[in-house]
Fold:
Amino acid sequence: MTTGVEDLLREHAPQVLGVVARRYGDFAAAEDAVQEALLAAALHWPLDGVPDNPRGWLVRAAVRRMTDQFRSEQARRRREDVAASLEPPPGEVVDRDDTLVLLFLCCHPALTPASAIALTLRAVAGLTTAEIATAFLVPETTMAQRISRAKQRVKASGVPFAMPVGDERAPRLRSVLRVLYLLFNEGYTSSSGHELHRGELSGEAIRLARAVHAVLPDDGEVAGLLALMLLTDARRPARTAADGSLVPLAEQDRTLWDHGLIVEGVALVTSAVSRGMVGEYQLQAAIAAVHDDAAKAEDTDWPEILGLYGLLERMTGNPMVTLNRAVAVAVVHGPEAGLVLLDAVADRLDGHYRLDAVRAHLCEMAGDVEAAVEHYRVAAGRTTSTPERNYLVTQAARLGTP
Amino acid sequence: MPKFMLLMSYSKIEGVEPITSWAPGDIKAHIDFQQALGQELTDRGELVDGQGLAGPDLAKVVVFKGEGAPVVTDGPFPETKEFLAGYWTVDVESQERALEIAAQASAAPGPNGVPIGQPIEVREVMSAPSVEQ
Structure:
């Protein structure tokens, strides 16, 4: 029952916020009012039953709070003007999907990614501040402050509650996708700490990406990002062993993969790529699809992966992509060729543990055990993820002990 | 209830090799031990926070030097014989209980399951003044 109400509330949250923010043109105040309305509903609905028109109920509750709030400020405002604009709304609620408008606002480039993620989870995904704080392992007061500052920034930037138009739209959509991608990664590989998965965050990212895809079905990069998330998330059940340790892709039990997600992800990326204008997320999704397509690790079509990494490298110029291409080169052309490529990119990745981790792996492939142990050790000393450190330490030990 | 911070430093201990030289099974036993300890403290309602820190390779020291940019020194610091590896903050009935947890943590297994005997520093967290009787 409680879960049912919770799902219902979260489904309606962005629409309700959209209606209220549009009506009053004050996103920050509307967001507070909707959050209070959601909390009131979470309290009352399980006891009193769900109203016939849940969205209308929420809009009315939020508007009442907006009205109360404005009235209390009337003393220092132009009394009549404000009061006139605050007549209770007519009964009907315009049924339009404001999810995308809200995402454009919450993922505004004026915000840092951390603030954008927090604001998105509250305003679009309908999570409470307490839930977001728990997911990010920070005190609730800290998260409340982060969200409040984010809202002030949005307000100060003067962005209207409306779809960005013209030249502005493409870069703004890119920043939405970037925030969703970071949110997904935050959930999939916690960037620090013990928990390898904070699945609820990945789940939120997928839910939001689905919502964007529903509104923009013809956008290749939106489809690519959703496909990338699904194809990556499909491996989640195989990614950790029972004791919580990390299992590398080549050693995963592929029967544990979620084949429903794989089928959906492959279909998405295939249809997106066939439409042309291939972007970064589509290429990453295509690489994930090639991995997921192999029933056994040794069946992987590495030449195909190598080609895709080459395209991605040319498109992004990102040295991390070159690092991944080096692994593919090593498999296709031998570890020495991979190591040559690593040397070429080493300067740009100086000090990053992934460089040492990949070098260790390629040294091991080449039979240079001593160098492999040394690089695994260096990598272990430089990672900030506990499961990853445990993995790297164990690799060094495995090779180092006779 | 008083709060204590239990600080674990990594320092060279006589007769204990660095962890990357242990047998993989011993590493697993050590990791399992640390996870079980964290779980036990959680289950008993005593754990406030517990974190491992990234290695000294990533450490930096920052000093304010008046005008101009602050001086930032990159780790590792060879002159430092030990470095903070992690900590637990616990909320417990008594100092005795904090010492008991520290003893347990210090007994984490090393090569061949032999307890390492890593020193654990126990520091009480400052709190509100005591109620006057």
DSSP finds 20 helices and no strands in chain A. Residues 87-94 of chain A have pLDDT under 50 and may be disordered.
